[in-house]
Design a protein that fits this description.
By secondary structure, the protein is of the alpha+beta class. The protein is built from five helices and twelve strands. It has two domains: about 15-200, Bira Bifunctional Protein, Domain 2 (BirA Bifunctional Protein, domain 2, 2-Layer Sandwich), CATH 3.30.930; about 210-250, SH3 type barrels. Bound molecules: biotin. Biotin (BTN) binds near residues 141, 142 and 143.
């Protein structure tokens, strides 16, 4: 794979392909430090041997069946305090793409898992490099289960598992890059309210009572939305509280 015929201005125009690597995010984080690496550069592999996920978890994907790649962007217009807005834009791009390609109930599970019919089909790992009060560069790592047939976790799925047919990885990637660029440009032009609104409208479990574990033990509350820093807002009997990713674990 050397060139992707995506109809984009900059997303995916510069492509770094490696048949195998530990993690495209790790490789992209190194490239990101070089000012010569252009915005929109994609680092893509057929096989990751040490794919990384959220909360220090590993990301497992069958070689050559899925999309595992990282995009390098330079959102210098975003303050570090607003970095969750990049998570919103990337999650929405995946939601838009999957809505375009697949019939199903497509939701974003906070912060950025993409579910179809309650099965996780895509995970996103964003890693930012800060320089003072600026985001110097960001690596948006995307693991999209495309043609995988079997999964370690019962809660996982793929585009093929849902539709029953195979997809061409290059075609899907070209399309996905267009959706990613569209949402990134929306973010760059400051349309934060629209982005937040779209995100909330797709938020999995919004308005529902859920059981979870926090620093007080097992408890329950209704998912209300997110606060201005992207923390999850939950209404409980004692009042509302916001949570960071490491502060909450859903059960059941
Ligand atoms: C999650 O835990 O849901 C996030 C998973 C992110 C996986 C992708 S695959 C491409 C990129 N490289 C990595 O090592 N991780 C991300």
């Amino acid at each position: 794979m050397y060139k992707i015929p995506a109809n984009t201005l900059f997303m995916g125009k510069n492509l770094v392909y490696v048949p195998e690597c530990h993690s495209t995010n790790t490789l992209a984080s190194e490239l990101c430090q070089l000012t010569s690496t252009s915005e929109g550069t994609i680092v893509i592999t057929d096989s990751q041997t040490k794919g990384r996920g959220q909360r220090g978890n590993s990301w497992l994907a069958d070689p050559q069946k899925n999309l595992t790649f990282s995009l390098i962007v330079r959102p210098t217009f975003l303050r570090p305090i607003d970095q969750f807005n990049l998570t919103i834009a990337a999650s929405l791009a995946l939601r838009d793409f999957l809505t375009h390609r697949i019939h199903g109930d497509i939701k974003i599970k906070w912060p950025n898992d993409i579910l179809i019919n309650s099965k996780k089909v895509c995970g996103i790992l964003i890693e930012n490099s800060l320089a003072g009060d600026m985001i110097q560069c960001s690596v948006i790592g995307i693991g999209l289960n495309v043609n995988q047939d079997s999964f370690f976790m019962e809660s996982a799925g793929s585009m093929k598992a849902i539709t029953g047919h195979d997809f061409n990885l290059y075609d899907e990637l070209s399309m996905l890059l267009e959706f990613l660029e569209r949402r990134y440009l929306q973010l760059r032009s400051g349309k934060i309210l629209e982005l937040k609104n779209d995100y909330l409208n797709s938020l999995y479990g919004k308005g529902e009572l859920r059981k979870f574990i926090d620093d007080t033990g097992e408890t329950q509350g209704v998912i209300e939305g997110i606060d201005q820093h992207g923390k999850l807002l939950i209404k409980m009997q004692a009042g509302a509280r916001s949570y960071d990713l490491k502060e909450i674990r859903f059960i059941g």
